[in-house]
Amino acid sequence: MTQVKAWAGYLLPKLGQFLFVVVATYTLVFVLVHFLPGDPLIAALAAKGGASTVIDPAELDALRVQYGLDGTLWQQYFGHLIAAARGDLGVSISTGVPVTEMIARAFPFSVQIASLALLFGVTSAVLITFLAYAAPWPWLRQLLLQIPPFGIAVPAFLSGLLLISVFAFTLGWLPSAGARSFDAAILPAITLALPVGALFFQVFSSAVLEAQNSPYVFTAVAKGVPPRRIFTKHLLRNALLPSITILGLLIGYLAGGTAVVETVFSRDGIGRMTVNAVLARDINVIQGVVLLVGAIYALVNLLVDVAYGFIDPRTRIGGGVPSRARLGAKK
Amino acid sequence: MIEHGSGAKAGSGAKAPAATSDADDNILVVRDLYVSYATRSGSVAAVRGISFVVPRGKIVAIVGESGSGKSTTSQALIRRLASGGRIDSGSIEFEGRDLGPMSERELRSIRGGRIGFVPQDPSKSLNPLMRVGDQIAEALRLHLKLDKAAAATEAVRILDEVGLPDPDARATQFPHELSGGMRQRVLIGIAWACNPQLVIADEPTSALDVTVQRHVLDNIDELVRRHNTSVVLVTHDLAVAADRADYVAVMSNGEIVEQGTTEQVLSSPTHEYTKKLVESAPGLASRRLTPSLTALGEQQQSSAGKLFTHTRRAQPAGLAAASGVAASAASNGADSAEATNILEVSNLVKTFALRRQGGGSQVLRAVDDVSFVVPRGSTFSIVGESGSGKTTTARIAARIASADSGTVTFDGTDVTSLSGEALRQLRRRVQVVYQNPFGSLDPKMSIEKIIAEPLRAFRVGDRTHRAEVARELLEHVSLSPSLAQRRPTELSGGQRQRVAIARSLAIGPELIVLDEPVSALDVSVQEQILQLLVDLQVQFGLSYLFISHDLGVIRQISDHIAVMRFGKVLEAGTAGDVMSNPQHEYTRELLAAIPGQRAV
């Protein structure tokens, strides 16, 4: 019972923060969209039909109602907020399809490459870090530590095109575009994994190399623990603590950062949908996507906070200690 | 032991009886060991040709101050040096085999299995994310090839053996749930887990309270007896070595300058450095320090014309009515116009709310109804172990922290609720010197700026005047004025603490609160700083509120002593009474725990 209370006391403020971030994101986008010069609906219709489009005022009013852009700003603000809470993000101006439906269609494709990218990126970062840690010669270690920054330095449209020309056109191993089959996701995921893995590597490897000189690692060495076991049992979890924060940021980045990769590989996905929506001045879609990304971001940070408790017993809430031990501590 | 360094041939040392006996009796033989570290400016020799032996079942202490190479030696013995370190030459023979040419794989079977290691800092030497039982079991599984369940059971038995209460519950706890002493016991348990022939203990108790230190060392003694283990005990504390070791090797500058049986080395030290070390060890032979002759001489001439008197006169009339005459009054030994007690605190209470596991909070009474008076011109000391509330009390007395209730009276004026500018003005008369001279000085400021900063804060004098004062103060704390433009990073710990003292003197205070001012320093430096404090006290008519955990140090400087534990003053009185006729059980325990009693 006390444990439930402790968890509630820990989680409720975090949930409050989560809601605050989502509402704040919504508000910010709403303000930006509505206080930009020009009428958003007219801008969108102009983008759709060309600059010389002529619209009958009565028809315009009807369209306003259809896209939920009628009424005062306050009515719109709260109306959209309440609708969003019910899962209704309005209708796309350029396609006429409900935004929720568009997101539901594109989202799985993005999740697919984003999670693959995360998997590739983190795995290779941990692997390279281990090799650098176990490297018998200092020059090899230095060399290994210098490789990952390339992942940040090379832009995605370049690395993507390089991967396509080698693996799709020259070797013919993987498809160059589309999203129909699973292997079509591999090249875009690798492209995306390069910067993600490199950023993760920067934090993770320095945490490992710093922990390597820590007294508890000395204790482990003095115990006779072999290097690989020191890495997996002692260094890995300790180095994960600072890395988890950056992992949360990276997931947030992936939620909205797939645009270039999806364009290069002409895949469906949230990123490409956003690009199209911006070009079409489709404010309902833009609002929906930003709200989605903001929610994912806040949710991931919430999970990161909870994950800390699982990894680090020092920040664990209640029940981390068996009850017997707690009785012992009181004695 | 092999005598080395004074020209004697290795193995023929007449002093150490063990050296003449058969080599088989020695578990460890170190010959002519050289260790160096590669730095940017080339290679630096840390250990320069040391030789010693460890007889089976005996404790050999390696004593030295920071930078003497003793820790490097201990790490070299298991061939695990900090990065950049390498063994240049010499041999380390463990049970007749040289560790030098061994492969890492062979070394791993020796480390933890046949040579245990007790590291220095219990707060950082355990993996924070691993249950302590698992950390012991890890060694058991590696070397004794026990299965998981057997290792867990054995780990609990070991925890019991090293004296942890409720060992099977403790085994499932994480390091942060254990006290420092308990963590060190866990580390001792790891070292002894696989019943090694040799254990290297690198400052095993220097981070612990004195009563805990005693129990932990007793525990090591018992393990040594029971398992017939040999121990290399690395320590900065000669008194600990005197109590516990059969043989002592004294290191200085990477060389062993003297070695022999403990009795020989301590009763008739031959090397100059050892003599100095024996003299200055507070645990071994401490007495109240008296002002040196030069200090008494300067006291006479400091009555007029000095820069400090300017400083004092420059104080605003309001608060400093009494302090304007402080310098002259104190130096004349007269206390006419002033309160006889510079500081009186009564019924201080300070509580902290602790957040407990599983929600809810608990109130900790850090300071619980504490009262004492500090007579003018004397040293009042508070002694206690960590968590006793001594530092909180001192901070309240200096008005850095505020109490929940109780009063602080400074020089007859109630200063309990001073705030704003009035509180700032109080800082002219009450200054603080902190424990850590590495953290308390801004690394980016020059020494001159650091010392003159209080003057600048109170707008005393112009820039050249302040520079002069700073230089004069440097002389007073026995530092060369040529250091004025240096940065703190270029100074040693002792020098830094002198700078911190000079800074506290700059504004001409009457009371200085010294919070563990020598705890971070080497013993020989400790003595110098304490002597300096005693000299300055006479020169400037200062009163001290001195905080320490070390009764040896307290004995050297105090006129009055209060013993604190769990926020309460258990016993207070003159230094002589408390030290020679302790009334409270805990005071007796503290006194008994001072190391160095076996030797003298």
TrEMBL record, chain A:
Any Gene Ontology biological process: transmembrane transport
Family recorded in the similarity comment: Belongs to the binding-protein-dependent transport system permease family.
ABC transmembrane type-1 domain: residues covered: 107-308
UniProt protein name: Peptide/nickel transport system permease protein
Subcellular location: Cell membrane
Annotated transmembrane regions: 15-36, 113-135, 147-174, 186-209, 239-265, 285-304
Major localisation: membrane
Gene Ontology, cellular component aspect: plasma membrane
PANTHER family, per database record: DIPEPTIDE TRANSPORT SYSTEM PERMEASE PROTEIN DPPB-RELATED (PTHR43163)
Membrane topology note: Multi-pass membrane protein
Alphabetic keyword roster: Cell membrane, Membrane, Transmembrane, Transmembrane helix, Transport
PROSITE patterns: ABC_TM1
Coiled-coil annotated residue ranges, if any: none
CDD domains: TM_PBP2
TrEMBL record, chain B:
Pfam families: ABC_tran, oligo_HPY
Family according to the record: Belongs to the ABC transporter superfamily.
Regions annotated as coiled coil: none
Assigned keywords, A-Z: ATP-binding, Nucleotide-binding, Transport
Name assigned to this protein: Peptide/nickel transport system ATP-binding protein
Source species taxonomy: Bacteria, Bacillati, Actinomycetota, Actinomycetes, Micrococcales
GO biological process: peptide transport; transmembrane transport
Residues covered by the ABC transporter domain: 30-278, 343-591
Organism encoding this protein: Salinibacterium amurskyense
Domain of life: Bacteria
